[in-house]
Structures are given as C-alpha cells and as structure tokens.
Amino acid sequence: MPQGFSHRVVMIVGEGSNPFELGVATELFGLRRPELDRPWYDFALCAPAGAAVMHAGMFTMAGIADLAAADRADTVIVPNRPDPDADPAPEVLDAVRRAAARGARLVSFCTGAFTLAAAGVLDGRRATTHWRWAESFRARFPDVDLRPDVLFVDDGDVLTAAGSAAALDLGLHLVRRDHGAEIANAVARRLVFAGHRDGGQRQFVRRPVPEIPDTSLGPVLAWAQERLDRPLTVAALAARAAVSPATLHRRFQAELGTTPLAWLTGERVALACRLLERGELRLDAVARATGLGTTASLRTHLHRHTGLSPSAYRHRFAQP
C-alpha cells in the first residue's frame, strides 16, 4: 500500500456479542505492528450509549465510543447475534444503513450476517453465516444469495465470515486486500495461523463418520505446490493420488470445497502475487514460474482474483 495508508476500522459491540470475535478484530486491526514498518489500521470499538454487556453476562464493555464513531469509519464490523432470530437494536441497524449509504466497507463475523441482512444491505448479494443457522437465515432473508459451504464471502464492499474461527480467515483476507499477500502472511505467522485455509465450512458440518475414512489430500497438494511451474493437469494430480480423475474431483469437493483445477489456479495466482511483491519485473518470468504460461493468461487470472493488473498489483504491494 502507499506509505500514506490510513484506514479506520470500527467494530460495533452489541448486547450479548461474543468476545472471541471482538478479540480477533482487536488482534488483527488494533495492535501495533512495528515489525511490518508501515502504517497500520486506526481501530476503535463502539456501542449504543458507549457500553454493552457481552455474551452470557461475562463482562461489560464500558467507556468505549458511541455509535457516532461508526459514521467516521472506512470499515464497519457489525455485531454478531447471540440469538440470531432476535432483531438487532434499531440504532445499530440505522448505523449500518448509514455506513452502507456512504460506501463504507461492511464486515460480519458468524451470525453478524443476520445484522447486515436485517439492515437490508444483503438483498441480492452473496453472503455466508454459520452452517448451524443457514436454514433459519434462508427462511428470514430469502432475497440473500446465501453460500453456506464457504469460510467467508467477499462481495466487494460487503464481506461475511461463516463462524467464529472463520473471522480470522476473513480478517487475514482483508489484510491481504489492503496490504498484499506478503504482509498478510507475516501477520498470519505472528498469529501462528494458516494464511489461507483451503476448503469451506461444509467440512465442519456434523455428519456420519465414514466406515473407512479417505486418505488426506495433503501429500498430493504439497507435491503440486512444489511443481507449479510445470504443466500440471487434473489427470496428473489424480495419478499422483492413485485415484481416477472423477474420484479426485469428489475428494476435492468434499475436503476443500472446490475443484482440482480451481485450486491449482488459485495456488498459481498466489505464487504470482508473492513474486510481484518481491519485485519481479518481468511478467513473462512470473507467468513461467507460476505455470500460468503467458503474460496474457497471468493478467487474466490475476485480475479475476485481485481486481488488479500485474503492474497495478506490483505498484500497490511491492516491498520497498
């Protein structure tokens, strides 16, 4: 990001909010990061009347800003709901609508998607929430394009995370969007957390345990990641895993929530991002090293995944 980066993140704390998500936001956006040697986020908490009782009465947040702080935020994180079927406070919904009207980035963790939907900002848009509440969400908000099988959804200026732990996935994704893959990876290492978790929340849905569990895809994924510069195919991945291509597709969908080709392309784009951030100037070299083939293919896939051209991505995220 440019050296003058300044981005204000405000999290609204609602009555009964889960302190875990509050901790995630504070850790990611509120702590100073001197080891990164760059401006970080300006983070604040707010609540109606400047106070809120946390989940199950564990403790009370007091002495924080009132909801007017959300009117000055670039990113607003809305409160999750201890009882998703209960309506959020009207003043919270008004604050969310004001933020949406002025173009702020809106974020929800877990059942916070119910807050966004109740404010009317999710109609016609993609979103996710915890799998446990998916059917209830669909019944209440049929105009929302719910994606219950993923860890988070990035719909541009509105982003939603599936469950409490998925707040970390989405938070690191926001850091990646704002600061690039290398900085996001550095923050993830500081957290001792995966910079990107493959798959979706379908792998966490309660279901019968198979009598003979499948062998993990881990070895074939590691094998492919070491050979991204080579012309890998789905057939080659299947052969390495000693299964048919059809079986490989089923296992990728079951374990990772995606297809082998989509996973492979995503890994190649992620490698391209790292190379551009490290200062590689020759696009043909990046295309070859990542297995994307041509500079035209590199431009197409990078723009599809990041919204930026290679030169724009390098200008925005390259290390000094």
Question: Can you offer a commentary on this structure?
Answer:
By secondary structure, this protein is an alpha/beta fold. It folds into two domains: about 10-190, Class I glutamine amidotransferase (GATase) domain (Rossmann fold, 3-Layer(aba) Sandwich), CATH 3.40.50; about 215-315, Orthogonal Bundle (Arc Repressor Mutant, subunit A), CATH 1.10.10.60. About 45% of the residues lie in helices and about 10% in strands. The protein is built from 13 helices and ten strands. The protein has helices at about 20-30, 90-100, 110-120, 135-140, 165-180, 180-190, 220-225, 235-240, 245-255, 260-275, 285-290, 295-305, 310-315; strands at about 10, 40-45, 50-55, 60, 75, 105-110, 125, 145, 150-155, 160. The chain has a six-stranded mixed beta sheet with strand order 2-1-5-6-10-9, sandwiched between helices. The chain is globular and about 60 Å long.
